[in-house]
Amino acid sequence: MDDDDSIRDALEDLFLSVGLQARSYATAIAFLDQADPLASGCLLSDVRLPQLGGLELQERLASHGFLLPVVFMSGFADIPMAVRGLKAGARDFLLKPLRDQDVLDAVNAAIELDRHSRLVAIEGGKARLRFASLTTREKQVASLILSGRKNRQVADDIGLSEITVKIHRSNAMRKLGAHNVQDLVRMDRLLCFAISDTVVTAVAPDA
């Protein structure tokens, strides 16, 4: 994102040359007003923007529904500014003049992060739906199995026979689509954290 037409054009040409779609905006306000919050990819933004700076834009993204990774660029070696952006979750901080390969490396890494995050969110949503289909007892048994308890120990813990525990465990595994305890652990992690290649370039001046 840069209000310098030549920089916007150069970035768009660079991305298109490697098969990445790009949308550019002259200001952060225009980005917030016009960009699709559900779009995948990443946000490449200058730090020094008119009206609303890049760091301030970063702070507003979540409240506007954007979950895109952010890559900042700046013509000033402002270390405190870079640190602030990175601490707030920015994926990278590039200094102008930009090197094409540095830009592509940073953007591709951010896109991969976004793709992974979206896949985790999708799988986490599926895991939540499956977990919600369990009965209270099945959830209890699955939880104890995840904690490392054996069937006999689970039976003693909740006052059931071992055969009854095995039935609840089998039903829970079937509903969750799990073949073993390792599958249960993976789903549990998804619950805890519970696509196209597009670069959204937020462009504004570095003056």
TrEMBL record:
<keyword id="KW-0597">Phosphoprotein</keyword>
<dbReference type="Pfam" id="PF00196">
    <property type="entry name" value="GerE"/>
</dbReference>
<protein>
    <submittedName>
        <fullName>FixJ family two-component response regulator</fullName>
    </submittedName>
</protein>
<keyword id="KW-0804">Transcription</keyword>
<keyword id="KW-0238">DNA-binding</keyword>
<dbReference type="Pfam" id="PF00072">
    <property type="entry name" value="Response_reg"/>
</dbReference>
<dbReference type="GO" id="GO:0006355">
    <property type="term" value="P:regulation of DNA-templated transcription"/>
</dbReference>
<feature type="domain" description="Response regulatory">
    <location>
        <begin position="1"/>
        <end position="111"/>
    </location>
</feature>
<dbReference type="InterPro" id="IPR036388">
    <property type="entry name" value="WH-like_DNA-bd_sf"/>
</dbReference>
<dbReference type="GO" id="GO:0003677">
    <property type="term" value="F:DNA binding"/>
</dbReference>
<keyword id="KW-0805">Transcription regulation</keyword>
<feature type="modified residue" description="4-aspartylphosphate">
    <location>
        <position position="46"/>
    </location>
</feature>
<dbReference type="InterPro" id="IPR011006">
    <property type="entry name" value="CheY-like_superfamily"/>
</dbReference>
<dbReference type="InterPro" id="IPR000792">
    <property type="entry name" value="Tscrpt_reg_LuxR_C"/>
</dbReference>
<dbReference type="InterPro" id="IPR016032">
    <property type="entry name" value="Sig_transdc_resp-reg_C-effctor"/>
</dbReference>
<feature type="domain" description="HTH luxR-type">
    <location>
        <begin position="127"/>
        <end position="192"/>
    </location>
</feature>
<dbReference type="GO" id="GO:0000160">
    <property type="term" value="P:phosphorelay signal transduction system"/>
</dbReference>
<dbReference type="InterPro" id="IPR001789">
    <property type="entry name" value="Sig_transdc_resp-reg_receiver"/>
</dbReference>
